[in-house]
Write a sequence for this structure.
């Protein structure tokens, strides 16, 4: 079977699950090479996953004609430079979330990709998992009626107590919205449609954070971004949504995502994950758990990349495309601008929701056509 060859830029913490899934789960893509600013990381990844090539830097990777798609899994503030450099080198790109740190940078990436006829996609791809796909089907089938609204809550006290290198979460490109917002917003727009306007309030509760995790235990982080967002959205279909994200609050849970309809309420699984549970409340039947109707319920990061690779081979559209990732970025950027200006911000971009996953396909193989 012919495979699409992936070149990794970045071999940090999240690279492990991508390497695991590409080498062991997805049958139509393979890792051709890796690079990292810390050479030991690339060497370790290549050794552990039998990767044939280690590049001295990303530019050597971009110059390799064997690389079909560049996988950008660098830090968020670096996403723009890496993706733009890869596009300018003529490579298709799949980027970790967010597309860029700011909407104008994301728009610049879209412009270059379109001008060069290149594919640009990105995370999160959790919306392609069994949990949110099951929710999407229930909504599309009219089970909860017309969408009235949605609400998401990501509440925690930050990453400095457990992450080995947490500083970037509190610098430009970080914060709870750019870090976790893409999971919630990607799920929301796939379930409820396009957003036409946003408003928000933000705050930075703690101007400094002390790291208590190794290896930077005791170091102080100066916080340069908002660490609490309370955002509101008006959808094109008239629904109203809210998203509350914070690194400032002690809370026994972390994730809640709900969609409200005229006939019932859908309790959506944590959008940071691929699986369930999916719960439905209706006045007729009360609260019931709904069986998952699709494949990919465990940690399948790379699923969106595999879908993009299949699109590259067949010419069909792909689901985790840049129209979607940019729409999500514009919403997040709009929240920040609204907070600064005390005004509602119009969202200009639109994306087309792609068809549901095909549950009849062999695991690790994507559908050739919608």
């Amino acid at each position: 079977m012919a495979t699409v060859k992936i070149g990794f830029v970045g071999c940090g913490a999240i690279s492990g699950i991508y390497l695991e899934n590409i080498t062991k789960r997805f049958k139509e893509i393979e890792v051709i090479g890796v690079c990292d600013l810390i050479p030991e990381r690339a060497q370790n990844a290549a050794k552990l996953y039998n990767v044939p090539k280690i590049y001295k830097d990303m530019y050597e990777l971009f110059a390799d004609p064997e690389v079909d798609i560049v996988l950008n899994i660098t830090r968020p503030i670096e996403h723009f430079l890496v993706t733009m450099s890869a596009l300018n080198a003529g490579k298709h790109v799949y980027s970790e979330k967010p597309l860029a740190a700011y909407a104008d940078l994301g728009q610049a990436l879209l412009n270059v990709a379109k001008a060069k006829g290149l594919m640009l996609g990105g995370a999160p791809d959790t919306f392609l998992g069994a949990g949110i796909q099951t929710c999407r089907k229930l909504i599309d089938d009219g089970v909860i009626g017309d969408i009235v609204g949605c609400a998401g809550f990501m509440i925690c006290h930050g990453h400095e107590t457990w992450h080995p290198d947490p500083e970037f979460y509190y610098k430009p490109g970080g914060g709870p919205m750019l870090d976790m917002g893409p999971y919630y917003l990607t799920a929301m727009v796939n379930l409820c449609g396009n957003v036409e306007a946003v408003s928000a309030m933000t705050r930075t509760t703690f101007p400094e954070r002390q790291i208590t995790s190794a290896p930077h235990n005791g170091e102080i982080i100066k916080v340069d971004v908002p660490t609490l967002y309370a955002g509101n959205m008006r959808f094109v279909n008239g629904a109203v949504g809210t998203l509350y994200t914070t690194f400032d609050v002690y809370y026994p849970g972390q994730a809640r995502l709900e969609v409200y309809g005229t006939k019932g309420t859908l309790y959506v699984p944590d959008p940071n994950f691929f699986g369930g549970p999916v719960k439905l409340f209706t006045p007729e039947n009360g609260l019931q758990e709904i069986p998952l109707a699709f494949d990919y319920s465990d940690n399948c990061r790379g699923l969106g990349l595999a879908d993009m690779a299949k699109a590259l081979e067949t010419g069909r559209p792909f689901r985790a495309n840049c129209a979607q990732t940019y729409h999500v970025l514009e919403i997040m950027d709009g929240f920040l601008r609204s907070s600064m200006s005390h005004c509602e911000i119009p969202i200009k971009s639109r994306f087309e929701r792609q068809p549901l996953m095909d549950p009849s396909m062999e695991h690790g193989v994507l559908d050739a056509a919608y």
